[in-house]
Specification:
By secondary structure, the chain is α/β, with parallel strands linked by helices. 46% of the residues lie in helices and 19% in strands. A 10-stranded mixed β-sheet has the order 3-2-1-4-5-6-7-10-8-9, sandwiched between helices. The chain is globular. This is Tubulin-like protein CetZ.
Length: 394
């Protein structure tokens, strides 16, 4: 198999980060994408590491045992940052066996509302950038507004720090994706699956299997790296439609001219329509598309449906919408999904209402810092007290 797709080392920190990395591993196994070349989950809470299903136990790293005894940091992201800094050698030790020369980038994944992830992710990213030449990207999950003031404040603080420490920060906003009436756990499981599906298609674009279909215009890892170059915050759009997947024709059939022929106008219109839906529909981070610095379009599906004219029209439309002259595009032939999809990566978005809202929260928090600090300390104290009571029962 030729390796032109993205090969990643994943570091999940905190509960959300660990769960998402675990979901990536499951996606990798189910699709055979082979994107994940190394992965670890890092946490201060032992129970969160126990809740991981697919990542081997020796890849789950418990930090801060001397300070919080495996009980977590209680949404105190300053404590989360301190512990990550103190135990950075242990984290690095877990990555020493990863064949870094075979990977294209590191991806540090964290929920930005809790304590361990929001505090520790920027610390780990800074450390990786100091010792590796490969790009270090972040994948940050913003909490919903209903999760509480301390989580919103953590996200406001962490977002600024995290984006400064990575080569690009990909963002997924839970608030824009939660369905009304969903249970908290069920909601997060569904969100994680949606998130991984989208980023999984992005990172596996360009995969070419022996004897498989070859793209007309290959989207390789360098296209993704170039789109994410220049830093800042990025968002991802995705749209798909079910199609009747034609049976793949053998080589003899091709020589006889028996290949399946689809209506060119229909396939062109389908691609351009999907590009519009992906761009103007529900993005991982809702934003004003105009002013985007760079963009990448990937059309995925059975090759018979990947009309080159449609992809080029979609790319030009994306140029008009974003105002960017750096809009790359290509196709990703894949069979077995029964869908044609368009994925749009918007690199370096600037007009993001949610980020402005978080910035305002941070400003207001400075005025009430004493009250917020007290709330965070109370949460941590309550957590430690409840754990001590449980231990006294045994």
């Amino acid at each position: 198999m030729w390796c032109v797709y993205m090969k990643l080392v994943l570091i999940g920190i905190g509960q959300a980060g660990g769960k998402i990395v675990d979901e990536f591993i499951a996606y990798d196994a189910a699709t055979g994408a082979n994107v994940v070349r190394g992965a670890i989950a890092v946490n201060t809470a032992k129970a969160d590491l126990e809740g991981i299903d697919h990542l081997p136990r020796d890849r789950r790293i418990l930090i801060g045992q001397g300070r919080v005894k495996g009980h977590g940091v209680g949404a105190d992201n300053e404590l989360g940052a301190e512990i990550a800094e103190e135990d950075i050698d242990e984290i690095q030790g877990a990555l020493d066996g990863v064949p870094v020369h075979e990977v294209d980038a590191f991806l540090v994944v964290a929920g930005l509302g809790g304590g361990t992830g929001s505090g520790g992710a920027p610390v780990i990213a800074r450390h990786l950038k100091r010792i590796h030449t490969e790009p270090v990207y972040g994948l940050g999950i913003l909490p919903g507004n209903d999760e509480g003031g301390i989580y919103t404040l953590n996200a406001a603080r962490s977002l600024k720090t995290f984006v400064d420490e990575v080569d690009n920060l990909l963002v997924f906003d839970n608030d824009a994706w939660r369905q009304t009436g969903e249970s908290l756990k069920g909601g997060y499981d569904a969100l994680n699956a949606e998130l991984v599906k989208r980023f999984g298609v992005l990172f596996s674009a360009g995969e070419i299997r022996a004897g498989g279909d070859v793209a007309e215009s290959v989207v390789d890892s360098s296209e993704i790296i170039n789109t994410l170059a220049g830093g800042g915050i990025s968002s991802l759009g995705y749209a798909e439609v079910d199609v009747e997947e034609p049976e793949r024709q053998g080589l003899l059939s091709r020589f006889r001219g028996e290949e399946i022929s689809l209506d060119a106008t229909q396939t062109t219109n389908r691609i351009t329509s999907l590009v519009r839906k992906a761009t103007l529909g529900r993005l991982t981070l809702p934003c004003d598309v105009s002013g985007t610095e760079r963009a990448l379009l990937v059309a995925a599906g059975p090759p018979e449906y990947l009309n080159r004219k449609g992809i080029e029209r979609g790319r030009k439309w994306l140029e008009e919408q974003t105002g960017s002259m750096e809009v790359r595009g290509g196709d990703f032939p894949r069979r077995g999904e029964g869908t044609v999809a368009a994925l749009v990566l918007l690199g370096g978005v600037t007009n993001v209402p949610r980020v402005k809202e978080l910035q305002q929260v941070a400003v207001e928090a400075q005025r009430n810092i004493g009250e917020i600090t007290e709330e965070s300390e109370d949460r941590f104290a309550d957590l430690m007290d409840s754990d001590d009571e449980l231990e006294s029962l045994f």
